[in-house]
Specification:
Structural class: mainly beta
Shape: globular
Length: about 400
């Protein structure tokens, strides 16, 4: 407690620069003795320039760019370089980092949002940026969320999907292309949905082993064989009926589909579609794909445990050898983690990390969760880091994986 008191005293001069609510939030952060390593990381959601870390104890941590308040700390300081716990949120069960806004689902089924709100993407009925979490209006029973450029989607426990925010490409899925909607509305034609995903302006929904998509489609990221924007959900063609995971990137999409060879024996395979300018589809070409194609690593099928699509790069945790991570696509910021900034477009390249349980691709940075022998997951990050979005206590671009800082000793 003495250390916390000394920290609080030393920050009084800085706190006076902020409003009273901001000052209170900062003091709460100073007095919180919990560390990033206090609980395992259950999920990572990487946005454009910031990152959220959901812990198994229901706390939510953030690092990176904060100009719109997307870190939820009560300020709009330029950035933070180590993860800190967002105050006022507990029992969080899911989270999503959008381009410049953030979402969290609490155990009671309510959704909370903060950050950039010019298109009503926080769902509180306004277009006012929020520096601390506010409750999304008229929305309960939610179990999962995903955040795009300036829109948000939520999956309810009854299998329906709800959306709010910008709608210029039909990303709200209600059959219109109205400018925006600042409160949630139901996506038409969807039921029994079990997962949702978005990152920019298109959306994916997983339903009983098949996938539907809607929104922007200029590169075929919808996967229906066209480049026509869709304002209501359509079927993704070319996949089987045993899809288990989906990931929407900025302009491409990924999915895991299981193929049954005989009763009792099946294997997962990775598929990709959409923009392929930098080889992010992992099919050995740079040809855009309007329907899903299989991903390969050195000519062999990729057998995925986890997938994540970034801006123009892809991550896949593969089950074949020690649960390593495979990467492909653009690498100008080191987001492939291979020690260089050279693009790797021909199939997927193996990164040296092993014993991985998951991965997360931001727009230009990447993460992997590693399961240690003592059942503790280390978080590794790499790529673009000019705003501290990796969380390694620096703003140094990382071309190889670095361990995310284990605690936030300073809240400033």
């Amino acid at each position: 407690m003495k250390k916390s008191s000394e920290k609080a005293k030393s920050l009084w001069g800085k706190i006076r620069l902020f409003s009273l609510p901001s000052a209170i939030a900062l003091l709460l952060c100073v007095s919180d003795n919990s560390t990033f390593a206090s609980a395992e990381t259950a999920k990572i959601s990487a946005g454009a320039l910031h990152t959220l870390f959901l812990k198994t104890d229901g706390t939510l941590w953030a690092t990176g760019f904060d100009n719109y308040g997307e870190l939820g700390d009560g300020t709009n300081v330029w950035s933070r370089t180590t993860p800190f716990k967002i105050q006022g949120l507990s029992n969080v069960v899911d989270c999503a980092a959008g381009a410049y806004h953030s979402l969290a689902v609490k155990g009671d089924g309510t959704v909370w949002a903060w950050g950039y709100n010019a298109a009503g993407n926080l769902g509180d009925g306004t277009t006012t940026d929020r520096w601390t979490p506010v409750q999304v209006t008229n929305l309960t029973g939610v179990i999962a969320v995903s955040a795009g450029w300036a829109h948000s989607i939520a999956l309810k426990s009854d299998g329906t999907v709800w959306a709010w925010g910008t709608n210029n490409f039909g990303q709200l899925g209600d059959g219109s292309t109205n400018i925006y909607r600042a409160t949630p509305g139901q996506v038409t034609g969807l039921s029994n949905v079990v997962a949702v995903s978005t990152k920019l302006d298109h959306n994916l929904a997983l339903i009983s082993g098949s996938v539907k998509a809607w929104g922007r489609n200029d590169y075929g990221q919808i996967g229906d064989g066209t480049t026509v924007n869709r304002s209501t959900p359509v079927d993704v063609t070319g996949l089987g009926t045993s899809v288990t995971a989906i990931s929407a990137g900025v302009i491409h999409s990924l999915a895991i589909d299981r193929y049954t060879f005989e009763p009792g024996f099946s294997l997962p395979f990775a598929y990709a579609w959409g923009n392929n300018q930098f080889g992010q589809l992992g099919d050995g070409t740079r040809t855009d794909r309007l329907t899903p194609v299989q991903m390969f690593a050195n000519g062999s099928s990729v057998l995925p445990l986890s997938i994540s699509a970034g801006y123009t790069h892809s991550l896949v945790v593969d089950i074949t050898v020690d649960h390593h991570v495979l990467v492909c696509g653009t690498n100008d910021w080191g987001q492939l983690g291979l020690g260089t900034n050279i693009n790797y477009s021909l199939y997927m390249t193996n990164l040296s990390l092993t014993n991985l349980t998951g991965c997360a691709a931001g727009w230009w940075h990447s993460y992997a969760l590693q399961d240690k022998t003592n059942n503790y997951q280390d978080v590794w990050g790499w790529g673009f880091n000019d705003y501290g979005q990796i969380g390694d206590a620096t703003t140094t671009r990382r071309y190889t994986p670095e361990v995310v800082s284990e605690q936030c000793d300073e809240c400033f």
